[in-house]
Amino acid sequence: MLDFALTPSSSRLPDDERAAVLAAPGFGKHFTDHMALATWTDGRGWHDAQVRPYGPLQLDPSSAVLHYAQEIFEGLKAYRHDDGSVWAFRPDQNAARFQRSARRLALPELPAEDFVEAVRALVATDVDWVPAPGSGEASLYLRPFMFASEAFLGVRPASEVTFCVIASPAGPYFAGGVKPVSIWLSQEYSRAAPGGTGAAKCGGNYAASLAAQVEASEHGCDQVCFLDAIEHRWVEELGGMNLYFVLDDGSVVTPELTGTILEGVTRDSIITLLDDMGHKVVERRIDVDEWREGAASGAIREVFACGTAAVVTPVGRLVWPDGEAVVAGGGTGEVTAAVRSALLDVQYGRVPDTHGWLHRLA
Ligand SMILES: *Cc1c(COP(=O)(O)O)cnc(C)c1O
């Protein structure tokens, strides 16, 4: 197992300045005093694991990632419980997905125990940056990533790769309380095609979704919903969140994993939580017309999106070029609210962790 050797920062942010940041962290704007790093080279494997002061990386302009986007990432959070302890939620799942993403992008797999150890070593070093439990839904967002750092313009898997973890305090996603989002139905763009990289968490998927996101904003929407790339008919997911539909018979449907949908850890956890709550959960294909008609007829009672950053987000409206459909009166449905609390209660240690999902970091 890698041992992340610590080089402590000599310029940690003073306590009062850190407290000011934690009072209003926003998202992804402020970073902790340290970062974890490791290097992989062909033949030697992983080495030079370290936790060192946060700061710019020096990259050769010919680094392969800057040209061919050979890069993957993860997103998870550290939660502080009432007793001061700090926990991650199912980090083994993020580690396993990171390995699947690595395989798809022809990057070296990082052993799961090294992934979790990198996260632990960084959080233990910067533990003062994990927001206090009293502060609602605040957490320390963790961003592991891996990229082709070899200086070479030839097109082939890089023989030198960098793994890094950075951490950023995050306030509640909805500063003014949970608010339903509006969704633009992308007709022109696809996020992922069969055989492509849709199931991998790679930066390129996000780059490819931005034009659709701009289109959504131009139509007054918060997020984009992507349909399948072949029939332009089956609901897949948003740019960075999975989708759920609550039907009028109490059952809940989520698009089945087809290889073009990112397998969210939140999505998977919600299947279990809904089952605990006595709902029947069905993974199947969902026609976008079922959404449009179901919203109008009441056959679909609630729609919500889910992911680590925003947890569970109610979807109020689906908008397309010549119409729109409003679900649940545009508000937050009962099942949506219940599953959101159930998940947060586990993450913040407010209920027993019956599924063994929590992993202590500090
Ligand atoms: C990360 C991500 C999700 C959500 O995954 P979680 O593990 O629940 O955070 C959903 N869709 C896409 C495209 C993603 O990149």
Radius of gyration: 21 Å
Total DSSP helices:
8
CATH level-1 class of the largest domain: Alpha Beta
Low-confidence stretches: none
**Order of helical and strand elements:** EHEEHEEEHHEEEHEEEEHEHEEEHE
- From the 3D structure, determine the CATH topology of the largest domain: D-amino Acid Aminotransferase, Chain A, domain 1
Helix content: 25-40%
Bound molecules: pyridoxal-5'-phosphate
SS-based class = alpha+beta
Write the layout of secondary structure elements.
Elements: E1 5-6, H1 15-23, E2 34-41, E3 45-53, H2 65-68, E4 71-73, E5 76-80, E6 86-89, H3 91-104, H4 112-125, E7 139-148, E8 160-170, E9 181-185, H5 203-218, E10 223-227, E11 235-238, E12 242-247, E13 252-255, H6 265-276, E14 281-284, H7 288-297, E15 300-307, E16 311-320, E17 323-326, H8 334-347, E18 358-360
Parallel strand pairs: 1-3, 9-10, 9-16, 13-14
Antiparallel strand pairs: 2-3, 2-8, 4-7, 5-6, 5-7, 6-18, 7-8, 10-11, 12-13, 12-15, 15-16, 16-17
Helix pairs in contact: 3-4
Summarize the structure.
With 362 residues, this protein is an alpha+beta fold.
What does this protein structure show overall?
This protein has 362 residues and is of the alpha+beta class. The chain folds into two domains: 5-172, D-amino Acid Aminotransferase, Chain A, domain 1 (2-Layer Sandwich); 181-347, D-amino Acid Aminotransferase, Chain A, domain 2, CATH 3.20.10. The protein has helices at residues 15-23, 65-68, 91-104, 112-125, 203-218, 265-276, 288-297, 334-347, and strands spanning 5-6, 34-41, 45-53, 71-73, 76-80, 86-89, 139-148, 160-170, 181-185, 223-227, 235-238, 242-247, 252-255, 281-284, 300-307, 311-320, 323-326, 358-360. It starts with a strand and ends with a strand. Bound molecules: pyridoxal-5'-phosphate. Pyridoxal-5'-phosphate binds next to helix 6. Residues 75, 201, 237, 240-242, 262, 264-267, 307-308 line the site of pyridoxal-5'-phosphate (PLP).
